[in-house]
Automatic annotation (TrEMBL):
Descriptive protein name: Malate dehydrogenase (Oxaloacetate-decarboxylating)
InterPro entries to which the protein is assigned, alphabetical: Aminoacid_DH-like_N_sf, Malate_Decarboxylase, Malic_N_dom, Malic_N_dom_sf, Malic_NAD-bd, Malic_NAD-bd_bact_type, Malic_OxRdtase, NAD(P)-bd_dom_sf
Cofactor: Mg(2+); Mn(2+)
Malic enzyme NAD-binding domain segment(s): 237-459
PANTHER family on file: NADP-DEPENDENT MALIC ENZYME
Keywords, comma-separated and alphabetical: Metal-binding, Oxidoreductase
UniProt xrefs under Pfam families: malic (PF00390), Malic_M (PF03949)
CDD domains: NAD_bind_2_malic_enz (cd05311)
Gene Ontology terms for molecular function: malic enzyme activity; metal ion binding; NAD binding; oxidoreductase activity, acting on the CH-OH group of donors, NAD or NADP as acceptor
Binding site for a divalent metal cation: E210, D211, D236
SMART domains: malic, Malic_M
Similarity comment text for this entry: Belongs to the malic enzymes family.
Amino acid sequence: MPVPGPGYSITVRVEAPPSASAAGDLTGAIGRVGGVITAFDVVESHADRIVVDISCNAVSANHAKDITDALEALPGVAVRKVSDRTFLIHLGGKIEVNSKVALRNRDDLSRAYTPGVARVCEAIAANPEDARRLTIKRNTVAVVTDGSAVLGLGNLGPAAALPVMEGKAALFKKFAGVDAWPVCLDTQDTEEIIRAVELIAPVYGGINLEDIAAPRCFEIEARLREKLDIPVFHDDQHGTAIVVVGALRNALRVVDKQIEDCKIVVCGVGAAGSAIIRLLLHKNPGDVIAVDVNGIVHQGRDDLDDNLRSIADTTNREGMTGRLHDALVGADVFIGVSAPNLFGAEQVATMADRAVVFALANPDPEVDPMEAQKHAAVVATGRSDYPNQINNVLAFPGVFRGLLDAQARGISDAMLLAAADAVADVVDGDRLNPSFIVPSVFDPAVATAVADAVRKAAHA
Ligand SMILES: NC(=O)c1ccc[n+]([C@@H]2O[C@H](COP(=O)([O-])OP(=O)(O)OC[C@H]3O[C@@H](n4cnc5c(N)ncnc54)[C@H](O)[C@@H]3O)[C@@H](O)[C@H]2O)c1
């Protein structure tokens, strides 16, 4: 059941009679239709009327409309203007470039730009490695997308992907001091994407691929890793895998199970699911059963592409066949990165005792977390309105901080595993419980711990 949140937040400017009951009438009308008021400001006051800005959270765009209709229906009240606060913070974009050097006079100019800069250019031409010391390459990451899998919204194209990429860049800066810049490519051709990234690579210390649809994302990442001398990381794959593997380590500590004894069902074998399975396999789980839209992945299926074939070859030791509901029977762990509302409490009841359920499909999970809690011992989702939010922001800022500090030329599974352990270890034994298996995304210790772990693994 969705609850009003800041994602649908509006500010309504209303004109109302200056009566003693005006504030109560306005807030009461909003409350009756389920809006949650976050601010109430009188912006004008006259003998015959007041003008008020009321900010409130809604569930959806339709709900926001219900709220303004409820205000308009009050006697003597007129709605002057409705502002969508989410759109307001996007006006003109969310990031900008700032100069790190002062440009006050000719002296400054001569060193930051010509003629002085020429000697720095020559130094880099003579020794290209100096680019990591003398340019933004030291601290800059390209956030590259083709707009083919934007959030859960699908193929929206490069321009519509830009608000997400800007947000990503803002998070990089906020959580790890990394300068990231959106690169939204106007192509969805694998060869063109690879070539474009290759061509822009000299500027960057790392490439963060983002919202590129599976299975194309696998080839693009693999080939760029071969070609480039900087790390290439697809956040939808590895950022998710790091946080899931870290969270699972803590969840299994809560339920007192060893991963070697666990049957783990991973539902969704796209970008996120494939990477989760590959990282999990390093931890020697009892078995992993992968399930996609066509059922359990096994070697006998005749619809396997290269990615599914490699998953089939490394999972499902007993050659299980069937659907998701069959896979769940007796499973210790469910990890869902697939689609909404696939099962209910009755299927969770068929899992092993002290089951762990990570239902991560966004915005609506594979199973309602309230239903899952009836039988599972630990439940996590991707949502911010439930405990145990599995969110990539726990991983990617620290991962790139560590990679850039190490001047890493590539990224290995050992680094990803070190990052996963670091995320898990931020939750110390005293704080660990079924509702707290991952740290808060705002815990400043997370990015530092992940960066340290990645840097050490890079130097190992
Ligand atoms: N919370 C998080 O941190 C997090 C991170 C990554 C992805 N996700 C969510 O996971 C989901 C998948 O993301 P992705 O990027 O891997 O997508 P994707 O399109 O690459 O893969 C989707 C996979 O789900 C499978 N699937 C679809 N419908 C299914 C069904 N009815 N039953 C079983 N399997 C089904 C598909 O076959 C495919 O294997 C999305 O909802 C995404 O928002 C959440």
